[in-house]
Design goal:
Layout: E1 10-11, E2 18-19, H1 22-28, H2 33-36, H3 40-57, H4 64-82, H5 85-88, H6 91-113, H7 119-132, H8 136-146, H9 152-157, H10 161-197, H11 202-212, H12 219-227, H13 230-242, H14 246-275
Antiparallel strand pairs: 1-2
């Protein structure tokens, strides 16, 4: 990996560690710009904010794994706060999830600018993503189950409080398990593809497959990709929470991830039959 072009670098007098500027961090990220452009909210907002967060974090540590663990702690606390929506509203949990997203972007920035990109880091990033991003729907469902008297389903569709509460809890579970199941199926395919062909790690294959997809420039494919992005999901979450229709958010993503898991099963079984013999 090439080092950022910044001329003679500076060292912190107290620690002796290299001091990285925001320009260094942005320069190290240039290799991912093309991929990030598929996700406008991430590219224009989240990633830009993460450069400045990374600059601050680099004054404390040069370890991307340490930053990733800090992000995990923030994300887990945010998820747990969602259970207390009746007492706290959704906003504290949402705020911490937004902070988690920024830390998630920052650990990658730090890994690239310090030339410390490793397979362990990729594994840790994927694992933390599944823990936080793969579960927060479930915790929202529990929080709304406890606040069942204020659901759109009950107010306007006359489902009854018990039925409405049960439906949102199921929607939260389906969203979480559908997302995780989709990732498991895709992960198994690329793992056994690696075993079959002895090529690069399946994490790299996944990223390359997404980046090189023949559908990449199709508007419908970009919509599909962005709907699965945590950045857009949290924006949608905030809008729905603001207008009091958070149960609609959950039901929408329950449908989205249920359909995705079915399509992934069909697609990867078909690909496995064609490529893994």
């Amino acid at each position: 990996m090439s080092q950022p072009q910044s001329g003679a670098w500076k060292a912190d007098k107290a620690s002796g560690r290299r001091v990285f500027s925001v320009a260094d961090i942005k320069g190290a990220h240039s290799q991912k710009k093309d991929f990030d452009r598929q996700f406008p909210l991430s590219y224009f907002v989240v990633r830009q904010l993460s450069f400045y967060l990374s600059h601050l974090l680099l004054k404390i540590t040069h370890s991307p794994s340490r930053v990733a663990y800090w992000g995990l702690l923030i994300g887990v606390v945010g998820c747990l706060l969602l259970v207390f929506i009746p007492e706290l509203t959704p906003w504290p949990g949402l705020g911490l999830l937004v902070a988690y997203v920024l830390f998630d972007a920052a650990d990658g920035n730090i890994a690239r600018v310090t030339d410390n990109v490793t397979s362990y880091g990729r594994f840790l990033d994927a694992l933390i993503g599944d823990i936080v991003e793969g579960s927060y729907f479930f915790w929202i469902g529990l929080g709304l189950y406890r606040e069942s008297h204020d659901l759109l389903l009950i107010r306007y569709l006359d489902t009854g409080e018990a039925s409405g509460a049960f439906l949102v809890a199921v929607a939260g579970a389906v969203s979480s398990f559908g997302r995780l199941y989709s990732h498991i199926m895709r992960g198994y395919y690329f793992y056994y593809s690696r075993q079959h062909t002895q090529i690069q790690a399946f994490e790299d294959n996944v990223a390359q497959a997404e980046e090189d997809s023949k559908y990449r420039k199709s508007w419908w494919y970009l919509i599909y990709l962005n709907l699965g992005s945590i950045d857009l999901q949290l924006l949608f979450f905030g809008v729905c929470a603001g207008v009091g229709i958070l149960d609609v958010f959950l039901i929408f993503y329950a449908v989205y991830y249920f359909v995705q898991s079915v399509l992934f099963m069909v697609f990867y079984v078909y690909k496995a039959q064609r490529t893994l013999y």
